[in-house]
Write the structure tokens for this entry.
Amino acid sequence: MTFRIEGMRDIERALEAVALKSTRVAITRRALQKAAAPMLAMARQYAPIDQGDLEQSIKIGTRATGEVGRAAYSRYMSSSWDAAKAAGTQAQWDRVAESAKAVTALKDARRAFKASNPPAILYMGPTREGWHGHFVEFGTAPHVNGGKFAGTSHPGTAPQPFMRPAFDTEAGPTIERLKPLVWAEIQKNAARMAKRRSA
């Protein structure tokens, strides 16, 4: 679930006046986190409670698991390793030199992502501790179990959405809260900079 906020040209101009890009990103992230806090609280409220691990795993962060570029890195490393194994031992050593190209693929993917996306992106949802969150949100189809219960039938589970209702309810209010929060963060930054200059 994503949404893009546009039509805030006055805030964009004020942010552009902030000298450091890292400071602009930090200002935007802090404001986004504060604006999205009620959405986070609602998602936790809607999360079904079994042991409480799903509810507590829902967080707001600046990175998603499996961050951009890792897929490109993995694809490159996997294909070069398969080719090296097929060719023999010398090729396996040559593969080590190829890892630099895999790192380049990772960096290129990240640069392309940064160029086409806004500088501050927040993610909200279950962390690793709530790895089963998508099964809860969307439900599961009937299936045959593997692992410890291999061969047994599972009837599936009904969806128990918690993220979507929170998003649907809070997306509009989050946007409304954002503009004054960004202004407040810009003013705090300006006050800090003025204080440093006078010291």
In short: Helices lie at 9-16, 21-46, 53-57, 70-87, 89-116, 133-138, 163-198. The longest strand covers residues 58-61. The mean pLDDT is 80. Residues 64-119 form one domain.
